[in-house]
Structure to design on (356 residues):
């Protein structure tokens, strides 16, 4: 990579683009040069809010991809558009950061992996939770042997209500109700990607997945895939689960989605608790370690925006240093396979054995 900053084009300027833009705006190794959205008014409003009012705004993806000043594209589109737009971006010779989940199914994912691995520029499947500072601290402690061998992971995803949550446009929720656009439910398949990525990050690839996925109608007539319980079995007699519960009368603190996330990792010698993600329940410490009868609390940065900042920073550094991104397309496929197995298990009422 040259000393010149990467020219970044953001395709899709919905609510989540505010978080994706943060590190590109602050990092000297990159600068946002173009935005693309069918709603150019929305894109222009984002540009003003980000302090770059004169940035180029396009309403056509191919025009953005044709721009010679765009080196890297951040693709933030509904799931059914991920594969076709990523393939077009590869044909245009761009570096790619593709929003999760990478595709609708494994057949699409296989096409994307094949294309990405023959592409001469980096392709990243964007995942931020594994860069969340409390998760990074938990991984540091585990790698140092703080809990011995990890034996199980329990993940709790808890949508609730919050007076301080950001406003999510109705259009952003509407397409997530359409299976041919979303690929699966908004909590198990879409947001669940973060949770499956955490399980994969700490425990590796599962051997077996079993799921119950319910359905609940919430405000505005939207239906969510909760309550849900997804259990996993990993090699080496290790286990895990993801529990999703909607608590409509519970207030929590957040500046983002009205949701709390909690993780418990039990090892042969201790337990690590990660408290919070999108939001927080009270003032619990971000990371707690139990070992040898002693509780140790770690006060690390716990703003959810930090996970986006650090994920993007890692990518910029990886491009500069010639290292692979996290997640690669192949790693993204492994997380997608995890999510799809949960959906299949719930449909068919049986455990799903996963092959390599």
């Amino acid at each position: 990579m040259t000393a010149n900053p990467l020219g970044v084009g953001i395709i899709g300027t919905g609510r989540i683009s505010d978080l994706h833009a943060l590190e590109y705006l602050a990092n000297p190794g990159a600068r946002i040069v173009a935005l693309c959205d069918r709603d150019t008014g929305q894109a222009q409003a984002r540009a003003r809010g980000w302090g770059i009012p004169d940035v180029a705004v396009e309403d056509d993806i191919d025009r953005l991809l044709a721009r010679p000043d765009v080196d890297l594209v951040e693709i933030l589109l509904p799931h059914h558009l991920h594969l076709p737009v990523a393939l077009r971006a590869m044909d245009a010779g761009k570096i790619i950061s593709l929003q999760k989940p990478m595709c609708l199914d494994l057949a699409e994912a296989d096409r994307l992996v094949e294309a990405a691995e023959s592409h001469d520029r980096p392709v990243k499947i964007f995942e931020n939770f594994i860069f969340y500072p409390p998760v990074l601290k938990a991984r540091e402690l585990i790698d140092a042997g703080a809990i011995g061998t990890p034996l199980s992971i329990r993940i709790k995803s808890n949508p609730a209500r919050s007076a301080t949550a950001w406003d999510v446009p109705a259009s952003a929720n509407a397409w997530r109700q359409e299976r041919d656009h979303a690929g699966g439910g908004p909590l198990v398949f879409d947001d669940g990607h973060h949770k499956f990525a955490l399980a994969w990050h700490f425990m590796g690839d599962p051997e077996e997945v079993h799921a119950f996925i319910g359905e609940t109608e919430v405000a505005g007539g939207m239906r969510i895939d909760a309550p849900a319980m997804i259990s996993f079995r990993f090699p080496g007699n290790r286990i895990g689960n993801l529990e999703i519960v909607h608590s409509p009368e519970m207030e929590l603190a957040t500046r983002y989605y009205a949701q709390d996330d909690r993780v418990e990792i039990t090892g042969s010698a201790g337990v690590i608790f990660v408290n919070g993600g999108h939001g927080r329940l009270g003032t619990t410490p971000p990371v707690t370690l139990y070992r040898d009868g002693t509780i140790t609390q770690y006060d690390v940065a716990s703003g959810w925006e930090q996970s986006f900042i650090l994920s993007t920073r890692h990518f910029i550094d990886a491009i500069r240093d010639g290292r692979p991104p996290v997640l690669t397309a192949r790693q993204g496929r492994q997380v997608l396979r995890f999510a799809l197995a949960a959906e299949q298990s719930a449909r068919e009422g049986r455990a799903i054995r996963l092959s390599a």
Notes: The chain has a mean pLDDT of 95.
